[in-house]
Design goal:
The chain has about 70 residues and is mainly beta. It is built from one helix and six strands, in the order βββαβββ. The chain has a four-stranded antiparallel β-sheet. The longest helix has 4 residues, at about 35-40. It is globular. The model has no long low-confidence stretch (mean pLDDT about 90).
Protein backbone atom coordinates (compact mmCIF):
# COMPACT_ATOMS: atom_id res chain seq x y z
CA UNK A 1 0.00 0.00 0.00
CA UNK A 2 1.10 3.53 -0.76
CA UNK A 3 0.11 6.73 0.99
CA UNK A 4 0.07 9.89 -1.07
CA UNK A 5 0.49 13.02 1.06
CA UNK A 6 -2.11 15.73 0.56
CA UNK A 7 -1.79 19.00 2.54
CA UNK A 8 -5.45 19.24 3.56
CA UNK A 9 -8.81 17.43 3.39
CA UNK A 10 -9.54 15.84 0.01
CA UNK A 11 -12.66 17.12 -1.73
CA UNK A 12 -12.60 15.11 -4.96
CA UNK A 13 -10.57 12.58 -6.93
CA UNK A 14 -10.45 11.60 -10.59
CA UNK A 15 -8.33 8.92 -12.22
CA UNK A 16 -7.22 9.03 -15.85
CA UNK A 17 -6.88 5.40 -17.03
CA UNK A 18 -5.09 6.42 -20.24
CA UNK A 19 -2.22 8.25 -18.54
CA UNK A 20 -2.48 6.70 -15.04
CA UNK A 21 -2.71 10.18 -13.51
CA UNK A 22 -4.61 10.76 -10.28
CA UNK A 23 -6.07 14.26 -9.83
CA UNK A 24 -6.78 15.32 -6.25
CA UNK A 25 -8.68 18.45 -5.22
CA UNK A 26 -8.22 19.54 -1.63
CA UNK A 27 -9.23 22.35 0.72
CA UNK A 28 -6.47 24.75 -0.31
CA UNK A 29 -8.28 25.30 -3.67
CA UNK A 30 -5.48 23.59 -5.59
CA UNK A 31 -5.49 20.49 -7.77
CA UNK A 32 -2.62 18.05 -7.43
CA UNK A 33 -2.01 15.64 -10.33
CA UNK A 34 0.10 12.60 -9.50
CA UNK A 35 1.69 10.43 -12.22
CA UNK A 36 0.96 7.02 -10.76
CA UNK A 37 3.34 5.35 -13.21
CA UNK A 38 6.12 6.49 -10.88
CA UNK A 39 4.92 3.88 -8.37
CA UNK A 40 5.70 1.09 -10.86
CA UNK A 41 9.29 2.31 -10.86
CA UNK A 42 9.45 2.47 -7.07
CA UNK A 43 9.57 6.27 -7.12
CA UNK A 44 7.43 8.47 -4.88
CA UNK A 45 5.12 10.49 -7.17
CA UNK A 46 5.64 14.27 -7.11
CA UNK A 47 2.48 16.18 -7.99
CA UNK A 48 2.02 18.80 -10.64
CA UNK A 49 0.02 21.61 -8.99
CA UNK A 50 -2.74 23.67 -10.59
CA UNK A 51 -3.57 26.78 -8.56
CA UNK A 52 -5.75 29.86 -8.64
CA UNK A 53 -9.23 28.42 -8.18
CA UNK A 54 -11.40 31.10 -6.62
CA UNK A 55 -13.29 28.74 -4.37
CA UNK A 56 -13.41 25.19 -3.08
CA UNK A 57 -13.35 22.44 -5.71
CA UNK A 58 -16.25 20.06 -5.23
CA UNK A 59 -15.77 17.79 -8.27
CA UNK A 60 -13.09 16.69 -10.70
CA UNK A 61 -13.56 14.68 -13.89
CA UNK A 62 -11.37 13.71 -16.80
CA UNK A 63 -12.93 13.80 -20.27
CA UNK A 64 -13.68 10.34 -21.74
CA UNK A 65 -10.59 10.52 -23.97
CA UNK A 66 -8.43 11.62 -21.00
CA UNK A 67 -7.36 14.87 -22.67
CA UNK A 68 -9.08 17.35 -20.35
CA UNK A 69 -9.60 17.69 -16.63
CA UNK A 70 -12.70 19.62 -15.55
CA UNK A 71 -13.04 21.17 -12.11
Amino acid sequence: AVTIPVPSRVGSLSFNPKTNDLAVAHDSKDILVYAMTALDKGVKPVPKTFKRHKGPISKLAYSPDGTYLAS
